[in-house]
Structures are given as C-alpha cells and as structure tokens.
Write a structure and sequence with these properties.
mainly beta, three-stranded antiparallel beta sheet, 8 strands, 36% strand
C-alpha cells in the first residue's frame, strides 16, 4: 500500500468553542495556528516533521479537481444534526464519478474513539457530476442514533 495524497492543510481548520453568553460558535483558530503559507507556519511544520513517524511517506500527484466543502450547521444536544457536504467537480473537460463514504464516530475530547459506542452512523453514496457541476449530500443524524451513545465531554467526529 502506498500513500497517494496527503492534504497538509486539512488539520486545524475551524477550531471553535462555545461563545460566552450565547449558543453561538466562536472561531478561535487564530489562537492555535499561524496563517496558512506563512513563514511561521513553514517553520513549525518543518520542526514537527523531524519528529513525525511518517517521514518516509512519499506522495504522488493526483487530480485535485474534486473539492469537498462541509457546511456549518448549529447542532443542539438532543436535536437532529444536519451536515451538508458539497461535492464540486472543478474539471471543465470531463465528468466525474464520486464515491462518498461518511463515518460518524463518538470520541472523547482528546480524540480517542469511544470503545463502547464508537460508530454512530455510516452513510455511503455515489454521485455522477458533469463538468463544472456540484451537488450536495445532506447527512442527518437523529437524536435516537446518538443520544444513548454520547457521554459528557464527548464529541462527534466525521470521517470522509
């Protein structure tokens, strides 16, 4: 098995907390990360890479004409959770078939998967996108699917 692509910019986006005095989300990403493509960020990535366990990973160039955007929806405990996932074919010359598989898991705030109730939901779909076309897949998680599986301090992680 070999690595085909590593998205080095997917970690640390939209780090948030509950805003004081309201149920709104407060973006605190700037408190944890340097700006993308800045000299400070490059220095941190270089230093961290020296200690990583995957120094030997070589990546191949792959087509990057499919973009995925995960929408932001406010979710209240005990209510239905809706997650819009927009798939965009940016290729102006040909259509694409996209297989999407989403796994929603319960984990502790540390990121460790809950061993008693790890999987909340799995949903898979195949999309046919014409050139320069986009489509949105809406994943809905009902309270019955997650309420008995989450504990205090738990979070839901989605893996695509």
């Amino acid at each position: 098995m070999s690595v085909e692509y590593v998205d080095k910019s997917c970690i640390g986006k939209k780090i948030s907390t509950k805003a004081v005095g309201s149920d709104e989300r407060e973006d605190i990403t700037h408190l944890y990360k340097h700006k993308e493509d800045s000299l400070e960020e490059d220095a941190v990535v270089e230093k961290v890479s020296q200690f990583g366990s995957r120094k030997e990973w070589n990546t191949k160039k792959v087509n990057k004409d499919i973009q995925v955007e995960i929408g932001q929806e406010t979710a209240l405990m005990g209510g239905e959770i809706k997650i819009p996932i927009k798939i965009i074919n940016e290729n102006s010359e040909s259509s694409r078939t996209v297989s999407l598989s989403a796994h929603i898991k319960c984990s502790a705030y540390t990121g460790r998967t809950d061993s008693k109730h790890p999987l909340i939901k799995t949903e898979a779909t195949v999309l046919e996108l014409s050139k320069d076309e986009s489509d949105t897949v809406n994943i809905t998680i009902s309270p019955e699917e997650y309420m008995k599986k989450v504990r205090a301090g738990s979070i839901l992680n989605m893996f695509l």
